[in-house]
Design a protein that fits this description.
6% of the residues lie in helices and 50% in strands. The protein is mostly beta strands. It has one domain: YVTN repeat-like/Quinoprotein amine dehydrogenase (Methylamine Dehydrogenase, Chain H, 7 Propeller), CATH 2.130.10. The strands form 8 sheets. Strands 1, 2, 3, 30 and 31 form a 5-stranded antiparallel sheet that branches. A 4-stranded antiparallel sheet has the order 4-5-6-7. Strands 8-9-10-11 form a 4-stranded antiparallel sheet, with no helix packed on it. The longest helix has 12 residues. 48% of the residues are buried. This is DUF1513 domain-containing protein.
Length: 372
């Protein structure tokens, strides 16, 4: 496939990106040389009080180092394995992805979705960092697509697509060097409005990176549990967090764990405890024997013991957003948790907590910068 000629949609995105450079004072300040002594550790999309959007490179406490202007609201961020480049994805149904330098905060190419496609907000690099896999959909049908892009200098060039695995893919992670795991939500939408709730077919899908072939696909008993966000355990299991599309009073399990070749196994909590999460899991991350899941709608996060699949604790946190595990920046591995109010929390598996108040309205996900 040849590189696409620039089209009107791409021109609008470029204009919007450059037109949003006049940011609030803290965004301007966090790209200054005064922050060069900080180590880049975390990246997330963000919002500002004046309604602008960006991606922020931050230290391990969530304090900003660089900011990258985005033309519209962002969602997930993919980071190259060598820790040099990152890609911010538009929130679904999104029209752009923005490549930038983690070290300098410099924006590189902005890639517009093809005219009959949109982005679902997530992507992941191959283990060698030369290929980017993105979740996309057909506008008219929400038929799922994995876009395959080659990194050529500071350009992302689409070379092929994988399809035929389901409707409404959301997060994609690298299961191993030849396999992707995809949270397929099953929801056909017009814009952000669902139109097939009675017939939706969510699934956790494993896909070959070489051929695009479906290697395995598993679903949940309740077809209104839309599989969305993923995390990988140290022993090769996949955690998936769901959005429930059923009745408001239903307290249904929102997290499941899967080992290849077996069925999905639900994590346990009482119905009233599940209702605390308001039917939505935003981010999940595994540390040791425990998984932590956030819910901005529920203003809380929960911790489960994976040895027993039982809920250990629910903690109130206004607009609880991203969570990611840090195994490298401290003596003790810990979760980093963000919130839309600017509060950040570092928490060990044993429950030791430190918190900080930043001036950033963090969006739903955090990504960890590898220390290489």
């Amino acid at each position: 496939m040849q590189p696409m000629a620039i089209n009107n949609q791409r021109r609008k995105l470029l204009k919007g990106s450059f037109g949003a450079v006049a940011l609030s004072p803290w965004l301007t300040a966090c790209s200054s040389t005064a922050h060069e002594d900080k180590k880049a550790s975390l990246i997330s999309c963000s919002r500002t009080a004046n309604g602008r959007f960006g991606a922020v490179v931050a230290d391990s406490e969530g304090y900003p180092i660089h900011s990258i202007s985005l033309p519209e609201r962002g969602h997930g961020v993919a980071i190259s394995p060598n820790g040099e480049l990152a890609v911010a994805f538009a929130r679904r149904p999104g029209n752009y992805m923005q490549l930038f330098s983690i070290k300098t905060g410099q924006s590189y190419s902005i890639t517009a979705a093809m005219p009959n496609r949109y982005f679902y907000g997530h992507g992941v690099f191959s283990s060698d960092g030369l290929t980017l896999y993105t979740t996309e959909g057909e506008k008219d049908t929400s038929e799922g697509v994995i876009g395959v892009y080659q990194l050529q200098g500071t350009q992302l060039i689409k070379v092929k697509e994988f399809s035929g695995f389901g409707i409404g893919p959301h997060e994609v992670i690298r299961f191993d060097d030849t396999t992707l795991a995809i949270g397929v939500g099953g929801v056909h939408t017009k814009g952000r409005v669902p139109v097939n709730l009675e017939s939706m077919k969510p699934a956790l899908v494993y896909l070959s990176t070489e051929t695009g072939k479906v290697l395995e696909s598993v679903g949940l008993p309740d077809h209104k549990l839309s599989i969305r966000h993923l995390s990988l355990t140290g022993d090769g299991r996949v955690l998936c967090g769901q959005q429930y599309r059923g009745e408001p009073e239903d307290g249904v399990p929102l997290i499941a764990v899967h080992r290849r070749g077996e069925s999905l196994q639900l994590l346990n909590a009482e119905p009233e405890e599940w209702l605390r999460f308001h039917h939505y899991i935003a981010s999940i991350a595994v540390l040791g024997d425990h998984v932590l899941a956030t819910s901005p709608r529920g203003n809380c996060y929960g911790v489960w013991n994976l040895a027993t699949n039982k809920l250990v604790e629910v903690v109130s946190l206004a607009d609880a957003s991203g969570v990611v595990v840090n195994n490298s920046d401290s003596d003790q591995p810990q979760w980093h948790i963000s919130s839309g109010t600017g509060r950040t929390i570092n928490r060990t598996e044993h429950g030791d907590v430190t918190s900080h108040q930043t001036n950033i309205m963090w969006d739903n996900h955090w990504s960890k910068v590898p220390q290489v």
